[in-house]
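Researcher: Let's continue the batch. This sequence belongs to Bestrophin homolog, and it's 274 residues. Same format as the previous ones, please.
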Amino acid sequence: MTVSYASSVATVHHGSLVRLLARWHGSVYQAVWPTFLLFCFAYGGVALIYYLLPTDTPERLEMKQQFVQVCAYAARISDAIPVSFVLGFFVNLVVSRWWKQFLNLPTPDSACYLMGTYLRGYEHKEGYYVSEQCDSERPLLIRRSVARYLNLASALCFQEISLSMKRQVGTLEDLVDCGLMTKQEETIFLNLSQDNGHFFVPVVWAVTLLSRAHHEGFIKHERHLDAIVAEVVAFWRQLHILFLHDYVNVPLVYNQVSEVFHARGIDLASLLCI
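Model: Same format as before. Here are the structure tokens for Bestrophin homolog:
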């Protein structure tokens, strides 16, 4: 999870750089300190053995010379492997995926704005907007239902891709308790297959409800219906992109190659080149 630090360096002065480098939560130090500590112990152990090992016999002297040759060979290998080049591509791929996921976090605001404008059940008469059904709350209920369906689709999608969401509202009963789903809708979902990706079902319900509102006269023009449906479909598309990012990970081979290059080119060479 991203840690916010902009407030610490919002105003530039002499201590901004120090405060930025000294942050611990979410820092690179917090991420690598166990491996770095293990490396320091291993490095110190090998260094002590190398420098404290007596060379009173030809066999031990030859052993030290062989160790120096191995270190020199490891140094040549580390120079031959383009570690920065490989890790640069890997970091660029990971950061690009993270930023794309952030940009595709959906919000139902656009669809709600359009529904508040177009889904009102008013008819234009002599320059005024007069309600055909002044005592009817049908348009309001439709707007609320569509907004609830969009939020339900988000909750179902985040259940599949977010562990924190899974812990908070991990079952359909939790969605019913928090008001995002009714008992009848829960029964429909229980009758579906147990495969993942059923977050599109509330979106289908929302589009069907909007089409019904158009036929009932609450949405006067088809272009208004098309505008609202386009926002609903865009909302689903963002959820679909998030789901695909979780379903299709970075290829394992790429992760393994980057990790091997990192370990072989940095850790191993540093450990041997004392």
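Researcher: Any comment?
Model: The chain has two domains: 24-101+251-272, 106-122+135-247.
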